[in-house]
Amino acid sequence: MLSRIRHLKNPTAKAFLLSNLLCCPFWGVFDLLPIILCKELNASPLQITTMIALKPLTALLAFYWGGGVFSGRNRLTLNLLTAYLIKFLPFLFAPFFTNPWVFIGAFGLHMLVLRGTIPPWMELLKLDNRNLDHGKICSLGSTINHVGNALLPIFFGWLLDNLEGSWKWIFVLTSFLGLSSIGLILKIPTYSLQEHVKTNLKSVILKPWKDLLKILREKPHFLRFQVGFFLGGAGLMMIHPVLPKYLTGNLELSYTKILIATCFCKGLGFVVSSPFWVKLFKRYEIFHFSSKIPLLAAIFPFMLFLAHLHIYFLFIGYLLYGVMQGGSELGWKMSGPIFSKEEDSSPYSSINVLAVGIRGGIFPYLGAFLYMLGGTYLPLVLGGLLCLTASLYLWKMATDQRKAVVSISSTS
Fold first, then answer.
1. 210 backbone dihedrals φ, ψ, rounded to 5°
2. What share of the chain is helix, strand, coil (3-state, %, to 5)?
3. DSSP secondary structure of 192-245
4. Residue 160: is it exposed, middle or buried by C-beta count within 10 angstroms (0-12/13-18/19+)?
5. Would the pTM count as exceeding 0.85?
6. How many CB atoms lie within 10 A of CB 203?
């Protein structure tokens, strides 16, 4: 895989892939931050739930990222440069933070710009149309992240379990690596883009929502896709607030075992399944493809239940989660270019980001509320059932679409 990256001559694809490579060590510890705050800083349930909610909730602000702030022909690269600075700078000062709320704020900033950079990256790859297989590049970029996450658990786990406070310095070193991506972004060519018209604050706030409603009104298939993905994502968001307490409290796992499950097993599942998902993506239309994703997500919480019998069930559960994530990221990121066709794909990708934000404002707190009502198992069961509902809905949409195509073919 690394040889394929090294020999890429396209500057945009090279910047996209190598920036993912440089950022993946940071993600190896960043994903563990809720558990770190739970174990090291005694974060409260409210703080943990807020952090889990921020991961998707920041997408509401990310929806505006680049829309009214950046303009000019190099606005896409300027967007990325600013984002990479904001993503990593706060974590350079991690050794000086002791309040969980400070880390929660840095976490929120990182997620805000991380989601906000997806539309410009997708549009830059689309603009640099040199017979690129955009789906393959997108999948390869995600695979790089998960390969890094799969290789880091043993080393990071040993440090976290044996060297007190080492997590803060791991953040510093991995943040420096992430910031080095800026040199790659500076080499991306600029493109002649339509200038953004300067408008007032009210217009900046309302215009994305008007564009959203217009697209969803005019593209009913895209609306149905959003409904299916919304249901599946909602189910997962109900589950995640209880995971830190479940892993550290119910199962009483060390950092090493948690990292083996959440990073190694999940990363392995992602990497191994990615070529399969790419082939499946080319073979089937997007509804058929997407219907398989939440079905895997529905199995995940039930594997967590079985982890009480043996930890191997936890590893299998996260392996399946990684497989699910491989298909989810590909379908989610490529849905914008697919549904936009010849139009600018950025508004479509931005709607994907916005939907994540809406889910994030509701379902993590719903999961925490269910946890208070019925303990760990209630949000896990209901989250799994919601994922199953999403799979059935998307399958029905795929079936209806095939019937419509057959009907049109028979009448013509």
1. -65, -40
2. 80, 0, 20
3. --PPPPP--HHHHHHHHHHHHHHHHHH-HHHHHHHHHHHHHHHHHHHHGGGHHH
4. buried
5. no
6. 12
Per residue of the chain (412 residues), what is the pLDDT tens digit? Answer: 444 444 456 777 777 888 888 888 888 788 788 888 888 888 887 888 888 888 777 767 766 665 544 444 456 777 788 888 888 999 999 888 888 999 999 998 888 888 777 777 777 777 765 656 666 677 677 677 666 666 766 677 778 888 888 888 889 998 998 898 888 888 777 665 555 555 555 666 676 677 778 888 888 888 888 899 899 999 999 998 888 888 887 888 888 888 888 888 888 888 888 888 888 888 888 888 888 899 999 999 999 989 988 999 999 999 999 999 888 888 877 887 788 777 777 777 778 777 877 888 889 889 988 988 888 889 999 999 999 999 999 998 888 777 765 555 555 5
Q: Which token pair is 354?
A: 């916005």
Q: Minimal CA–CA distance to 147: which of 273, 335, 244, 295?
A: 273
Tell me how long the chain is: 412
Give the residue from 240, 229, 233 showing the smallest Cα distance to 334: 229
Q: Are 405 and 284 in contact (CB under 8 A)?
A: no
